[in-house]
Amino acid sequence: MSLLLRYAQQANNFLLNIVQQLDFLAPLVLRCYLVPIFWLAGSNKMMHFSDTVAWFGDGGLGLPFPQLLAFLATATEMGGAILLLLGLATRWISIPLMITMLVAMFTVHWQHGWQAVHDGASPFASANLAGAMQRLNYAKETLYQHTDYEWLTETGNFVILNNGIEWAATYFIMLLALFCLGGGRWISADYWLKKYLSPN
Which of 21, 34, 129, 140 has the highest CB neighbour number within 10 Å of its CB? Predict the structure, then answer.
């Protein structure tokens, strides 16, 4: 038994050594994944800023100070994308980005439940799943009868968007991980700034 425990300890030490060598990958991959998401979200808001302001205000969410909030959301997402790309002030920018995700979850997506896309096989299916699947099947049948359905679905299947909190919650969790991990070693401005500014 002691021999088995010794081998298990050696295997664990070997794994920990690999983890220590590759610990920069997790924050790097998280940052690279989130950069295009926030850049696209922010640039879309900026390109249609008057519509964004209207949506934040009485035309949609009914939030106070819609112009200010639309500006802050746009600046946070676009600025956040740039900072995440550079790995600069990673922990600091994660905070307003997490707040943005929380606002999105509770003001836009909460009423639709968990799922971003309707899926009957999920244990988190929305209450209106049956109606959504009925509409999807009707749309598929109509397209199959009147169009080249094989061509239409050549690069993917048709789905019905549910607009639940799933994606916003996922991004929040990724940002929370970055808040804890920081920008990571080697491939982040945070790492080199800390190294340069360190007294040792």
Answer: 34
